Amino acid sequence: MTIMVRKQIYLKKRQAISLKRQSRSRGISEAELIRQAIDHQIDRDPMESSHPDPAAWEKAHKFMLALQAAGPIPDRPRRWTREELYEERMNRYARHPR
Q1: Could you report the per-residue pLDDT of 4-24, keeping only the tens digit for each?
Q2: What are the sequence ranges of the domains in the chain?
Q3: Among 9, 21, 73, 87, which one is most buried in terms of CB atoms within 10 A?
Q4: How far is CA 8 from CA 31, 34, 77, in A?
Q5: Euclidean distance between CA atoms 55 and 63, whole angstroms
């Protein structure tokens, strides 16, 4: 038998209404729905919901600015045009401008 621990929480009115509606439509108790929501939140990949690392962003941003300042790579001209890339992308996703 699973040991249960009693917790008391406060919900916003809209949350309480939604909780009641969802539990009724799924045929489970409000408590079970809350437990499932907690399990879902806890079992998520922490990288999915983590906030970006400001120091890592700053390092990446400085790198991008340095690339931009350096300009094109000598002796390596582009073999594509912006229009070609745009057309390829539009075809890939079957989107066509109107």
Answers
A1: 999 999 999 999 999 999 999
A2: 13-46
A3: 87
A4: 11, 12, 65
A5: 12
